[in-house]
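Quick one: structure for this chain?
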Amino acid sequence: EDSDLKMGISHTFNSLTNNTFMVMQDGIYNIDYDFDVEDTSAGASDIDTAARLILINGTEIPGSIFETDITRQGTEVELSHDFLMEALAGQQFTLQFIATDEDVQISTHGTFGVSPESATVVMFKIANLP
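Got it. Here's what it folds into:
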């Protein structure tokens, strides 16, 4: 990770499970997340899957949730969503992935590197708070 690219956002990659971010400045942020999930179960599927941003205290950030269905076994679907978020300096939040079946996982498209999972989170501060 390049610190110039993370201006105003704190995220230290120290393990494959670190999905916590912190904003360093008050403002309105445009957040975009994107990842693929797949059903690896042996049987037929009709699974709900979703993602959302939540504050560290467990509060869902309004407008952040996006849900889709996996209707066939072995199918891969994309969860992609962008929204605006008002944040105060020091607020921490995390990206949460949820599914109604334990056989749903984030897809892996890469074969190289420490973390080949195909998930991205992009954040831009677009305005100051009044």
